Structure formats: structure tokens, C-alpha cells
Amino acid sequence: MSQEDFGVFVDWSRMGDVSRGDATTDKAEYKDLKDLKHQARTGHWACSHARRALVYRELIKALPCRTVTPDAAVYRDGEGQGAGGRSSALVPLPDCVDGAAVPRYCLRAEAVGSVHAVVARLASEFPDVAHCPALPAVAALLLHWSADEAQCFEGTARMLACNDPERHLLDQTYLAYQSSCMTFGDLARKYCPTAHKLMVAAATDVLEVYGDWQRWVLGDLPFAHAARVMDVFLVEGYKVLYRVALALLKFYCKQKVPGLAEQGSAGVRDDIRAFVRGLDSSVTPEKLLEKAFSFRLFSRKEIGLLQHANEKTLRQKGITVRQKRHDIQLAVSSENFSSEVVSVREIREIWAWLPERFALCQPQLLFSTATHGCSISRFYSHCEGHEPTLLLIKTTEGEVCGAFLSTDWEERRRHGNKLSYFGTGECFVFKMKPEMERYEWVVIKTTMSEGQLEDGGLDADANANSQSLAQETTPSSVTDHAHLSPFLAARHFRLNTSNTSMFMAGNVDCIIIGGGDGNALYIDSELNHGRTSRCTTFDNPPLCSESFQIALLEVWGFQDTMST
Fold it and tell me: Spans of biased composition, class Polar residues (predicted)?
């Protein structure tokens, strides 16, 4: 096979320093998966077009696929194709790509028509693919290293037909795509908190901005960057896309901080995409991947758990097919929100801290001392049956603090009037005035900050279980701490519950949030006085004056606006 087989669709004047190579001699060799990951991450194939083409062919061929997967012969049987491409006007793109355009990258102008033809045929052969905006970009990239349209079709078809859950490559339904956008929001809040906060301040609807996260990586990136991402993507799978998108978000916010003001979701959305398209002027492919693989304790299992939880929430809300964007938003409505403790701006700040599946809801006032009086029994009667809830406290000194509580207060009844802790690692406490700060579960926070495992290591997934957990846990009892998921209950981790899993508790005498060497919040039965101190569960400082009098206490639930 000659080297021309891999360059027939390429405009070589746009390829920079990449050599065509020789398919007969320029073969890539690797001994095992670790070696393959090393080559992919270090750009071992980047300088030779032929070498990369051969590696891609082997990687795609090795994908486990459905028993019946259309191949190049199927495409050739149904298509008459020219050797160098066709006009893009000949074949319209299918609805499943949701208006995504074909990025030209380094293709010849007429080769864009070949991508149209390939994508249209894929939609015909895969009628179950209902929503896949990444498809044109993936097909366009693979065409650079394909001998003809049929080979590009077969490679993309195998990526769609991959049936190994551990090797998920492309979202193919609106439900999967939308939940991935929510999952990206969860990950951004956890791994890029400063950037996420800037997004919330600048955009009225963060989900609309994050709805483009896949297009940043597959579509907007310059070719040299996109090719390096594709190298790693084919080896390591879907989580690579999340990593790269998070890196792009960080780079964007770092460079845009001085001029990033509130400009609406559409403005921020367009600005990010423009920044990504021009990334080659400020960030090299090597620097992009270095940043992408610098996020610690970032596992495939965590992504899977978040994705599953978000899909479940969307199904419950009836969101399984394409919806209008304004029907699915994370911003709190200023028209329907009225609190005597926090402003609309402040509740939006709190909403940015919430897991995405709850941030889809609107706040619903369940209890207020101003309306329902200072009674712990009325507190419970109004809050039971609601999960999660948001507790807000304003002291007589004007200080504001509170807690996000993941579990129904009815759970306290399991132990009678005995004070017993319950809840999950999604609980957190916070203070709003005089300054704003959130304090999460110490096990997640400490493991992230102190853990030595970095997925940038070549065999991070294989060695994840060898790392030590935070000191407060029982090391011998936890076998998968690198995959900790905060929305699982403490019992899933078999933690030492005397200090690190004391999330929430209550009886007729008091309400307690956070335990272990103190309480983040302690509220008496009359909802009149309280105490706050450092606690082991959240490792928080006092949230306000250590002994305080309550001026107002509110509890907010989460209203499913999709069913109203």
C-alpha cells in the first residue's frame, strides 16, 4: 500500500511539519497497553501521517463491536465515490447531528463533501443513533488517515458499534448527550471550581454553555490539537474528552478573567468556542494534554456513576428526546424566588455548588421561622418527604450560613428518638456573609488534595487501589477509594463513622449538621439558638459566630419544574 493511500483527502499545504511517511516501513510498535498509552500521550505518531494511519487502523479494528457491524464493503456496495471527494452540497447532513457542521481541519475543500456522504450513510445504517453532534468531526478526522470514503465509514461505524461499556466512545441519544453535559458540569464544579464560579457569574444558564463541551473538543479544536486528542481518545476512551474539555475551560477562564463580565449564556457560549478555535495561538497540543492529565483522582468509575445518576434524573423528568433549550436550564428564576435570608444573586451562587441533577430544579420554600414559627416539630413536619433540602440561617448579627442536605429528614425516625447520623457525601456546609465559602466532605476533599495518584500516570487505572486514603478512614476497609463517589452513602465505604461520615442528625431536642470533634451546626429545639465549630466531617472553620441567635431560618426544597 503506498503512502498516497493515507493522504488522498488531505490538503498538505495545511499540515505543517507532518511528513507523509511510508506505510511499508513507518510502522508503530508497542509492547503493551502501558506502552501504547505512553506513545499516545507523548505524540509518538504525530510526525508521520502514515504511522498514525496504521495505528488508528489497528486500534479501531481491535474495538469490540456488535455482531453485525457495517464495513467498507457495505459502503462500497451502496455508493459510487470519486477518488478525491465530492461537493458538500450533494448530501445533506442528517438530523441526528443536531446542526453540527463538518470541520474542514486539513482536508481538501472538496473532501468536505465526502464527510457529508459518510455521515449520511452512517445515519442510514444506524437508525438507532438519534443524537450524535460529534459524528461529523469524528468522521472528518478519520478521513485524514483513510484511503477512501469506505475506510472512513468503516472506522466511524466501528466506533458507533463498540459494545464494550468500558470503551464507550460516542453518545448516540439525546438522553446520553444531555446527561453528559450535566456530568461535565458536576466535574467542572469539582475539579475547576474557580472557572465554574466564573461561568455562573457570567452566564445566565450554565447548562447552555456546557451543552457545547463536546463540540469544543470534537469540532472547534485546531487540527494539530484535535489529532493529538484523537490519539489518546482511541486508546483510553471517553473520559479523555472530559479531561480535555476541563482543561479548555481552565485555559479560557485564565485568559478571559480580566474581561469576563455578565454577557448572557449565548455570549459566553460563542466566546468559548471562538477561544478554542484560536487555541493554537496561545496553547500548544502538548500543554493542552499536560493540563488535561493533571486532574487527580479522575476515574472512569466516577464518570459512570455521575452519568447514571444524571440520566436517571432526566428520565424522571421526561427528558429523553430533544427539548427546547429554555426548558432545561440551571439558573434560578428571579421571578419566582423570594427569600428573607439570601438574594437571587446569592441563591444562584449556591445553585452553582449543587449536583447538576438537582440544579435542574427550582427552589421551593418548605419551612420558614417567619411563617411557621420556631418549632422543631413543625420543622420536621414540613421538611419530611423532601430530598434533598437546603438549610439557610441568618443570625441576629447579619451573618448567613447553611447546609445542603442530601437525605430526607424522615430517615432520623429509623432510630426512634436516639440521635443517629445519616446522609451522604454530597452534603456540604457553607457560609455566605461576611464572605462566601463551601466546605465539602473531608474524605473526598482530602483524598483529592493529598492523594499521590495522578491519572497522568500511564497506569493510573491499574494502580488506583494501591493509594492510601485520608487518615480519618480505616485503610484496611476501603479497597476502591480512588473511585469515591460523593453521592453514595457512607455505608458504601465502610468508613469509621465516629468522625468522617457524620453528615446530619436530629431528634426532638436538636438538629445537627456535621460531626466529629464538634458540629458544623447545632440548632436547639426552639430554633432560636445555635452553635458552630470545626467538625471532622467537613473540616470547616466556624461558619459564623461560634454561639449565635437565629433571626431567620429557612428550608428550601427542589421543585421539579418539568412536571408542573
Answer: 463-476
Amino acid at 485: S
Residue 495 has pLDDT above 70, yes or no: no
Which residue did the predictor score with more confidence, 67 or 522? Answer: 522
State the Cα–Cα distance between residues 232 and 338, nearest whole angstrom: 48
What's the grid cell of residue 459? 497506569
Long-range Cβ contact pairs of 456-460 (< 8 A, separation 24 or more): 456/290, 456/293, 456/294, 458/34, 458/37, 458/38, 458/41, 459/34, 459/37
Tell me which residue of 248, 243, 257, 259 sits closest to 283, measured CA to CA. 248
Ranked by mean pLDDT, which of 12-21, 39-48, 386-395 comes out on top? 386-395
Q: Which long-range contacts (CB under 8 A, 24 or more apart) does 284-288 make?
A: 285/43, 285/46, 285/224, 285/225, 285/227, 285/228, 286/43, 286/228, 288/225, 288/228, 288/229, 288/244, 288/247, 288/248, 288/251
Please determine, for residue 233, whether its predicted confidence score (pLDDT) is greater than 90: yes
- Rounded to an integer, what distance in angstroms lies between the CA atom of residue 450 and that of residue 472? 13
pLDDT band at 203 (very low <50, low <70, confident <90, very high): confident
First-to-last alpha carbon distance for the chain, in angstroms, is 62
CA distance 41 to 30: 13
Q: Do 340 and 553 form a contact (C-beta atoms < 8 A)?
A: no
* Per-residue pLDDT at 457: 37
- Model pTM score: 0.69
Task: Find the mean pLDDT for residues 497-508.
Answer: 77
Contact call for residues 421 and 501 (beta carbons, < 8 A)? yes
- Amino acid in position 329: Q
Q: Return the residue matching grid coordinates 427550582.
A: 362
Check: CB of residue 490 under 8 Å from CB of residue 507.
no
- Per-residue confidence band for 552, with pLDDT thresholds at 50, 70 and 90: very high
Q: How far apart are CA 145 and CA 153, in angstroms?
A: 12
Pairing state of beta strands 389-395 and 504-506?
unpaired
Q: Report the share of the chain in percent with pLDDT over 70.
A: 79
Tell whether the torsion through CA atoms of 141, 91, 213 and 132 is positive or negative: negative
Of 222, 235, 215, whose CA–CA distance to 285 is shortest? 222
**Which amino acid type is present at position 483?**
H
Q: How many residues does the chain have?
A: 564
Q: What is the pLDDT of residue 151?
A: 94
Cβ(373)–Cβ(539) below 8 Å? no
Q: What is the mean pLDDT of residues 194-221?
A: 87
Distances (CA, A) of 491 to 173, 211, 310, 354, 515: 34, 34, 22, 22, 16
Q: Are 160 and 312 in contact (CB under 8 A)?
A: no
Phi, psi of 333, deg, nearest 5:
-75, 125
